[in-house]
Amino acid sequence: MAEAHQAVAFQFTVTPEGIDLQLSHQALTEIYLSGVRSWKKRIIRLKNSVITGVYPASPSSWLFVVIAILATMYTRSDPSMGLIAKIQEHLPVSQSMSTQCQAVVSAVLFSTMLWLLLIFTMRLCLKQLLSYHRWMFEQHGKMSTTTKVWVALVRIFSGRKPLLYSYQGSLPNLPVPTVKDTVKRYLESVRPLTDDSQYERMTQLATEFESSLGNRLQWYLKLKALWASNYVSDWWEEYVYLRGRSPLMVNSNYYGMDFLYVTPTPIQAARAGNSIHAFFLYRRKLNREEIKPVSFATTQSPSASQCERIFNTARTPGEETDSVQHWQDSDYIVVYHRGRYFRLRVYQAGRLLSPREIEFQIQRILDDTSPPSKGEAKLGALTAGDRIPWAQARKKHFGSGVNKRSLDCIERAAFFVTLDDDEQGMLGDDPEASLDRYAKSLLHGKCYDRWFDKSFSVVYFKNGKTGINAEHSWADAPVVAHLWEYTLATDCFQLGYNAEGHCKGEVDSSLPRPQKLNWEIAPECEEQISQSLTVAQALADDLDFHVLSFKDFGKGRVKRCRVSPDAFVQMALQLAYYRNRRTFCLTYEASMTRLFREGRTETVRSCTSESSAFVRATHMHQQLYRLAMTGAGIDRHLFCLYVVSKYLGVESPFLKEVLSEPWRLSTSQTPVQQVELFDMVNHPEYISCGGGFGPVADDGYGVSYYVLGDSMINFHISCKHSCPDTDAHKFGAEIRKALHDLIQLLSPSHREPSKVGESRHEFKKDL
Predict the structure, then answer these.
(1) Which residue windows are transmembrane per the record (predicted)?
(2) What are the pLDDT digits (tens) for 66-91?
(3) DSSP 8-state code for residue 602
(4) Which residue has the higher pLDDT, 456 or 477?
């Protein structure tokens, strides 16, 4: 109960001699320093809001404009062409102000208006410049004169050091493609998947839609595009993610892995201490907007709006639709270990705990032998099962009292942490099988030892390995990957460990112990937990997963064949799928639309008529990817037209059929975004294995791939055991064979090199 007493700032008792008041100086100091920290954050946010609000100008430029106007006035010239005099005439001032003082005030007001007009003009010019996307369609390494001029102008209008959110007000809105273009591209995408009669039928449906209902629905979309920042994103978040009633686990959440070849320390608590500290360093940089915006073509930065909800965010279940809740910065995390939930404060007296102090607190949790409360151990299964039972249980059993307080604590935490008793990574005599187990553990764990509603959860295994599991509705994988890259690099290269494997620094042994959360779980709620666990366990058992680490060659050799690495991999996946299933299928590849305000993703339909001619197909694939990134994709436009038709209560046979087509091959690439944080030449062993997700269709595959340096490509392949036509390991073998066949096709005279593993450094494997 020591921590409870420390939380009380004062105590008083009534005695015959009067009131005995006792102050806790430690608690008062804590309150004071917390207040100071809070005000510092408010001041920083206010300062950044001003800087971002006047971008691409700077606050100091206002003073420059004022001085310039005043200087011209003293040279007896009027740059305002009479406007300063007009302002002076209508200036509501007291009679005591001199004429000269009135003139100065009028000049300052005119200067301010001129400054704001210049900001508006510069922002409008920058917005028009950022609407230029022809650079994406130019041949790699050959920049046109127009693009060179564009790059120069963007650099001039962008200023020197933009903050993370500086570009947001200048990004163009996502354009609405014409119905004619979208329908044309859709028909081209389904041609290789249909026979002549099916294609003729779809063409007829498309023509009828384009000439009638399509134009009506398009009018509403254009109206929304004029009013909203992005005509897709809010509907995409609500209808694709938040209204889904099936389990988040496997179906929606995704994961990221630790370093493939090394484990910085085998001490579980130490690994947690360093990386938790690194997460909060990232959050500090995020709050101060000090994170460098990711740029394309050396100038253009994507939308950073998704970064706002990385921390202190949770998905809240509802019976019809879920919601995403975001709170102000929390000074604690919630840790799960052996069926217990602990609240761990990471700030003490207004300062962030050092890695060594966090390790000390984590070790306290690991050493705690208290049993879980009745019904507490498998409580997390509610977040792993179907959404409606969880929403009903939350409303009935977690709406008040101790359960509500504990649930609020979890949902408002900065993020969620699991201390897992298992060991994971490349282990034993069969490293491939151990990687598969590692992937499944990160994706679903034991189905109750993760909190799948949190924006992200971090898992620390007994042998020091770690990983991340993220909820999908609030942001897409590149946002979480950026956070994960920073954390891994800071953990190893900035913070480091001492010779014994512990975090560096000293420990304040007076730190209050982590606080165990209390629960009062009713028998009826326990029954619902059991039912949700049954649903989740069946889903986890049905998941077939395989991690393929392909080291025979990488993007370096592919580029020497003058082919896009992404297009090369996609064509290999097409070939592998055809060999595996003896047919082609509708293929989904995620492409970002973050070149536009509040942009998220668009679909690249990788299976095309050109897929049979691989060299031509790679060019076609790049073209489709660029169209998707520049707002000329197919699926988001058709999706929004479908949503409008539902609002209007009208049926479209064409849209109904389009939206019901299954994605039997769902793919995604997550590129390395912060290459400067890793030294892949001198330390190639410090590379992440990437991450993955579950299959979208019950009879299909989910494939995530991660291109690392010039000599490695990691694939994360998922499918379901219940489908007799899918097998993750067989598909992995087909991918490996297809990669070799394609590289031989593109460079037939090039001798197949020996495996990279035979010529590169011997990496230290986990034992």
Answers:
(1) 50-74, 103-126
(2) 888 888 877 777 777 778 777 777 77
(3) E
(4) 456
